[in-house]
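Troubleshooting: if your tokenizer reports a length mismatch, compare your output against this known-good record of 233 residues.
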Amino acid sequence: MNDKLVIGIVHGSHVDGWFFHSMMGFLTDMSVRDDNPLSEVLCVRSGPALQLGRGQLVNTFMEQTTADTLLMIDDDMRFTTQTILQMWDLFRNLPNLNGPEAKVLGGLAFIMGRPRLEKFGDMQPTIWANAPDRSPRFVPVFDYPENTLLRVGATGAACLMVAREVFEKIAADQGGNGRWFYHQHLADGDELGEDMSFCRRVNDAGYGIYLHTGLQFGYAKTMVVEETDYKRL
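Known-good structure output:
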């Protein structure tokens, strides 16, 4: 096993200042560590079709690096060095919680729905469970235990750590077609976004998806959205 980590960034027309500050702090901290796990940082420009940018990032990771693990971080995440190191340590020692092999780990972030003037819009943790009717859908989870490792049905791709073998298995399942991120159209006309459909393919490939609610990433839009904001709502 190549015990190295690649960070992959999908960025749009601009990079958020909080993200820049977080990355600079992390890279500075890593430069003075003897046990630095970071192999390299990949940056991929994404247009309006985010799924294409995510796919290109994974292709670059698979073809141009030999590291076993990719941490995907979007350019609107806010985080600390300690969060990344804790995530890395936990990922390498993930237990199998009565389920498939654990090779995917997400951090906890919060997405906003419809912002309203002078107050937050709807907020949601990036935690989804498999639908009770066993359909391809996922259902959002709003109540969660603090500082706990959870097996989840799906999570977002904005702060997601994935083992190389997961990408290899998904590509093999698709006949060698390395399309990891794309919108999935359901039989009734509904649609899964690129991150939800990726999680569906991870599940179908026989891997478990985990999330630790203590690994928290701020989601920077017009302001940084964090757990304290979610609890206040």
